[in-house]
Design goal:
The complex is a heterodimer of chains A (309) and B (471). Chain A has 309 residues and is α/β, with parallel strands linked by helices. Chain A is 41% helix and 22% strand. The longest helix of chain A is centred in the middle third of the chain and has 20 residues. Chain B is mainly α and 471 residues long. In chain B, a hairpin with a 5-residue loop joins strand 1 and strand 2. Classes of the chains: A alpha/beta (309), B mainly alpha (471). At the A-B interface, helix 3, helix 4 and helix 5 of A face helix 11, helix 12 and helix 13 of B.
Chain lengths: 309, 471
């Protein structure tokens, strides 16, 4: 568990007043939180709390009904985000290396390509008919596309492209090693056991060189040993790479062990936000997860109703 | 089918009395076979013809049900003998999977055969006979092989079901026809000997442009919807060709399309012609052989480019798109652009094939670009195994070449009578072989996928893992 006296790091992702409606259903209601650089932020909550919807909004697969999601980097502050919001542009990169991205304005592939937000899926989405290595090389598509001169240079096998491809394979090998998949590199991804597929999906997302990695239930369906391996892999990512993690997880052993910051959702509303220790002792969280005594139900419902308002 | 069951009785009776279960099965089989035999009598035995006064009269063809029963007996007997008890159709079909090493050698052997094909044809059937074999058979097959490889980029690699591929073929053919008969004679007559060589890449570019124009609005559609819109696009192009008579001359078609030259030398008996320049005796065979090599080179170019692209980021993105489009987007791949490139490149090869077709035929009309063509090309891709270059080539060869070979089966008339025309059974044979193939190899002849990249060893990926694409 991370000691919560650590100084707060610089914010990376500001989620501000996000709401998402599907017809009459309000899946996410006025949600705000901050994910910080180098931290593992966990998003937890009972089934149907809207966690995956938040993920889909951040990664551009859904457009939120209202709200702003700003990803900043290189020391860009609130004023940079405000200035960008007023321009109507999707993102801005300043000369000093600072950058700001308004995710709600960007299409999904651009969020991955420009803002460098990678994600995995609750039901694994690998390229099952391609080998493990190919999966990891496809993830480096945009860089390789540039190196192949948008195919023209690649068609004639220019040296620059061959070097870039060799680099891509090296990067893939690095992640194969980290994910413990080196022996299965030439096997079809669809042939891997479940736990290995989960690790491969994370490795593939990391091959895009993300600044923020969004993991949707990475430990779902893993046995305790695989779960421990996964914890080790996830803890290594923010330490050794400039990548922060935002994860959805039901497995509390994973959440409490690796995350720096936990946000609890219930019925699309944030009910708690803090360090794992704080969240674990929060009465509303306990009520949401374990339920309450009969006489407390009414009181608890009132609390929830108040928050929902 | 009726007669196949008919003969089952004989084979099954031999084991009928050894085991009660088998006996019951045989009796059931016999009942069914008997029923089928009874049904075969009105279908095969009776025939109503009209005489010279158009009066109908009944003809009894006693030999037909007997032949059919005999044939059915042989087939069923062979099947039972091989399977040892009739475990269904799949049991006695051998589980053939072509190993990659063999397929690689097969590919180069086929290439040598193709390169020598005109020479072999010339040696076997002489000058007069070989024009038919090189033109109607060789060139025709190679056009479809090229089209199959072009469509394979769209359907096999990118997984986008395109039912209107013939539209791009038509665009290419009409581009060449109009450029070579109208534009070049009017604005650049000095280009005339080179018309084909100038227009070939132009036709490819124009078809690619149309591929993009079609792609832009429809690529947000997926699966069945995409298939229907591409089908409609194919029909729209054909209808425009029929109705825009001012430009396309409608059903009358465009004639007098210049033939390709030997890099500037026309294939004529004139003094500046190909034959005279090389000191040869003039014969139209020169042009036919040259055309064969042109289409062979074009088809090989298609193959080379698509194999090369498959190993480049764009090709891997196509395959990834076929596997999972949402995952592609989560990795920052612009799926719209990726689909458009697949459409455009596939279309450009169809365009080049079309301009070759126009140049070879000398005449084109909308009749040549019906949905049937799209269906044949798509069938070649699906039967061959989506994404497999060799499989598609074999399937195109079997489908188009098979039709031509059926014309040669005159000896069957000796068996079935003088009125028997084997080409009329083409569709029946196609139907049977497609059903058989889909039972035997549901994912096409060569269904496994070769990875484009490997660390230690190249392992074929079994078809079960490879997605067919939903886009």
């Amino acid at each position: 568990m991370t000691v919560d006296t650590a100084p707060r790091r610089t914010p990376l992702l500001h989620v501000e007043h996000i709401s998402m409606r599907f017809g009459g259903l309000i899946a996410v209601n006025d949600l705000s939180f901050v994910a910080r650089e180098g931290e593992i932020t966990a998003l937890i909550g009972p089934n149907g709390a809207g966690k995956t919807t938040v993920f889909n909004c951040i990664t551009g697969f859904y457009k939120p009904t209202s709200g702003r999601m700003a990803l900043v980097g290189g020391g860009a502050g609130a004023d940079a985000v405000t200035a960008l919001t007023q321009t109507g542009k999707r993102f801005a990169r300043a000369d000093d290396g600072s950058s700001a991205f308004l995710l709600e304005r960007m299409p999904d592939f651009q969020i991955a390509a420009e803002a460098k937000v990678a994600r995995t899926f609750q039901n694994i989405r690998l390229f099952a008919g391609m080998t493990v290595l190919e999966n990891l090389v496809v993830a480096q598509h945009n860089r390789l596309m540039l190196a192949s001169g948008y195919t023209v240079g690649g068609l004639f096998g220019t040296r620059g492209y061959r070097a870039a491809e060799a680099d891509a394979v090296e990067k893939a090998k690095y992640w194969l090693d980290k994910a413990g998949l080196m022996d299965r590199a030439d096997d079809p991804a669809g042939d891997l056991p479940y736990g290995a597929q989960r690790r491969l999906e994370i490795a593939r997302a990391m091959c895009t060189g993300p600044r923020l990695l969004c993991l949707d239930e990475p430990a779902a369906g893993l046995n305790p040993r695989e779960s421990a391996d996964l914890n080790a892999l996830l803890r290594l990512i923010p330490l050794e790479h400039a990548t922060s993690i935002l994860l959805i997880e039901h497995d509390m052993s994973v959440v409490m062990e690796i995350s720096d910051h936990v946000i609890v959702l219930e019925y699309g509303v944030k009910i708690a936000d803090g360090t794992p220790t704080e969240v674990r002792n929060d009465q509303k969280v306990i009520a949401a997860y374990l339920g309450v005594e009969d006489e407390e139900v009414e009181a608890a419902e009132q609390v929830v109703a108040e928050i929902a308002r | 089918m009726a007669t196949i069951e008919t003969s089952g009785t004989a084979a099954e009776k031999s084991v009928a009395f050894t085991d009660g279960k088998v006996g019951r099965a045989a009796i059931e089989g016999a009942k069914f076979a008997g029923l089928m035999f009874c049904l075969s009598i009105p279908i095969l035995l009776l025939r109503i013809d009209s005489d010279i006064d158009h009066k109908p009269f009944l003809q009894l063809r006693w030999s037909w049900p007997l032949w059919a029963a005999g044939l059915g007996f042989l087939v069923r007997f062979a099947a039972l003998a091989l399977a040892g008890g009739g475990r269904g159709v799949t049991a006695w079909l051998p589980a053939v999977s072509i190993p990659p090493a063999l397929s690689r050698h097969f590919g180069s052997a086929a290439l040598v055969m193709l390169a020598l094909y005109p020479v072999i044809a010339l040696a076997l059937v002489g000058r007069a006979g070989s024009i038919k074999w090189i033109d109607n058979f060789g060139i025709q097959v190679m056009i479809y092989v090229m089209l199959g490889w072009g469509l394979n980029i769209v359907v096999g690699l990118a997984g986008l079901l395109d039912l209107g591929y013939v539209a791009f073929y038509a665009v290419g053919a009409y581009s060449y026809a109009l450029l070579a008969t109208v534009v070049i004679p009017q604005y650049a007559p000095w280009l005339t000997p080179w018309a084909f060589w100038v227009c070939l890449p132009l036709a490819g570019l124009l078809a690619a442009l149309w591929g993009i124009l079609l792609g832009l609005p429809v690529l947000r559609l997926r699966g069945d919807y995409l298939a229907i819109v591409t089908l409609a696009f194919g029909e729209i192009i054909r209808l425009v060709l029929i109705n825009w008579t001012a430009v396309t001359k409608g059903y009358a078609g465009i004639s007098g399309i210049p033939r390709p030259s030997f890099f500037g030398l026309p294939f004529t008996a004139a003094d500046n012609g190909f034959a005279a320049t090389f000191g040869l005796e003039f014969t139209p065979l020169h042009r036919t052989i040259f055309l064969f090599y042109v289409i062979l080179a074009l088809a090989l170019l298609t193959n080379w480019v698509s194999m090369r692209l498959r190993r480049l980021p764009v090709g891997r993105a196509w395959e990834a798109l076929r596997e999972d489009e949402i995952a592609c987007r989560s990795l920052g791949i612009n799926t719209t652009n990726t689909k458009l490139t697949a459409f455009a490149i596939g279309a450009s090869f169809a365009g080049m094939a079309g301009s070759f077709f126009a140049a070879r035929q000398n005449f084109i009309s909308p009749e040549s670009f019906t949905f049937n063509e799209s269906a044949v090309i798509l069938a070649a891709v699906v039967l061959g195994g989506m994404g497999s270059q060799l499989g598609v080539a074999i399937a195109a060869f079997a489908m188009v070449g098979g039709t031509e070979i059926l014309r040669e089966l005159d000896w069957l008339k000796a068996i079935f009578g003088r009125d028997f025309d084997p080409t009329q059974y083409r569709m029946l044979i196609f139907g049977f072989s497609m059903v058989a193939l889909m039972i035997w190899k549901p994912r096409g002849l060569i269904a496994s996928r070769e990875p484009s990249l490997f660390l230690r060893e190249r392992k074929s990926i079994p078809a079960a893992h490879v997605a067919e694409g939903t886009g």
